[in-house]
Amino acid sequence: MSLGRPVLSGIDWCEIAPPVRAAVAVAQAFRVRTLLIATLAFLTFWGGDLSLGQFSPNGPSAASTTAEFGAVSLANPIELTQIIVLRGFALAQLVVEPFENLTRVIGSGWWVELARCVWRIVCLSFWTTVLARVLVLGITRGDAPRLVGSVTFVADRWKSLAISMALLVVGVVALAVPLFAASAAIQSGSWLAWPLAIAWPVVIVISLVWVIVTVGAALGWPLTCTTLATEATDSFDAVSRTYAYFFQRPWLLVGCVGCGSVAIFAGALLMELVAGATLGVSQQLAAVDSPVIGLWQGMMASVATGYLCAASISATVATYLVLRRSIDGVEVNDVWVEPTDLSTTTIAMEPRHATEPTPLAKAG
After folding, report:
1. CA–CA distance, 211 with 196 (Å, rounded to integer)
2. Between the CA atoms of 235, 239, 241 and 245, what dihedral angle is there, to the nearest 10 degrees?
């Protein structure tokens, strides 16, 4: 059923300043349940990638850099800023690293990089959709859905999720094939080189289309996951919405990304201060170097990375809701809700008297 109740009933940010909605939504990343789920998602992704990275000819994965954490000075904002920036770049590099390696690998190690690429697509898509489901209910309804219910919601839609990711990947690969063929023909010096050189504008056009499709797939896949987590829809509609929302309102998208990035950075400063001070105290209490203590320290450090994941998806969900309202005219709080998603502690499904206005009527 499509249901929703306004959370920020006092201020309609979508009417006043739509991009601010993305900044306001980042606060959802500080909810304990959201933070724990994001940390669990990162540790799952990290553990699987490290296991596969042991067989990579390029050495261990760069995933370890995102979990490194030490005691930071509370009075050194430059150090805090560097840590946040490095952590963000490490996360971005962690995602694209095997895709870059796959284009350069020579020999029998290609299957390892391919396995790492598949692991990223599967793991990131699954956990992004789970987190998006948790966050969309939190942003629009103020609900705190159970992890099991969100996982079940995504598991019931695994075919749509798999087909959506496959469509994005196939589109990028299908357009890359003629480009690689043209490159091979030019470099080979065969009789095809001169006709291909004359028809090179066609290659330029294909390259332009490939860039557009690749950018849309790389940056828009969180919107695809958010669509599946928000709507009762299929994979083709999710992919079409991704490209439509990504390219039809570029300046609104840029505004949402900008406001969301500022809010994410401000929250990251707070998270690094708290986590850094906590680890600094615990490191002083540890008189000996213990691998078990180091494991617990690393798990605590992963919470800061989990925040970045949760905050990014929170901003993505809010951006999707704002773009959907701007392009399709659908209200922000209109989301697909199943009975298993409803939290009995936050949403009371009690009968109302005929004279009692509903929350939506009060908001309108």
Report:
1. 20
2. 150
Q: How many Cβ atoms are within 10 Å of 200's Cβ, its own excluded?
A: 12
Q: State the pTM of this model.
A: 0.79
Q: What are phi and psi of 171, to 5 degrees?
A: -60, -40
Dihedral, CA atoms, 253, 257, 263, 269, nearest 10 degrees? 180
Torsion of CA 62, 100, 305, 255, to 10 degrees: 150
pLDDT digits (tens, 9 = 90+) for 165-197: 888 888 888 888 888 888 887 877 667 777 887
SS3 at position 335: strand
Neighbouring CB atoms inside 10 A of 63's CB total 21
Task: Identify the pLDDT of residue 303.
Answer: 83
**Per residue in 167-191, is it b (16+ CB within 10 Å) or e — as a string?**
bbeebbeebbeeeeebeebbeeeee
DSSP one-letter code for 3: E
Rounded Cα distance between 264 and 319, Å, is 14
Enter the tokens of residue 56.
């990579």
